[in-house]
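Each field is set out underneath.
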Amino acid sequence: MLRRFWLASACCVGLAAAAGCSKKDDTGAAGSTATATQPLRVTGVQLGRAVGSDMRVTDETDDFKPNDTIYASVATDGTSPNATLMARWTYQDGQVVDTTSRSISPNAASATEFHVSKPGGWPKGNYKVEILLNGAVTQSKDFEVGD
């Protein structure tokens, strides 16, 4: 009888200790102390004739002249230790004009700048820039080169 008493007491103490050590965090996972992070995603693309020191467009437009440098500011949010952003610029028939990649490692909202220029001037017509995150198209913007 005394043996059962000690066994039952030991079990109760063990259960109480285990319950006290199993603290839950904000995500509901027992014993976890890591904070949740958001996966990286493209949240916007702006086109224009200039960008500021924050890599955001300061002169937004989608109508360019043949000798303009065309800037794209790609806004991202989230976290990634190593991601690749690419801007693929195409002419109206789908002909690739330029591709540029940038490796980024953001841990908050940020902007990445891309630009293209053509010394002899852009042919007039319709163009598009597609933004790829790790190889997948996430957003695109149409623009025009005219007079």
Remarks:
- Residues 41-145 form a domain with the Immunoglobulin-like fold (CATH 2.60.40.10).
- The helical segments are 2-21.
- The radius of gyration is 27 Å.
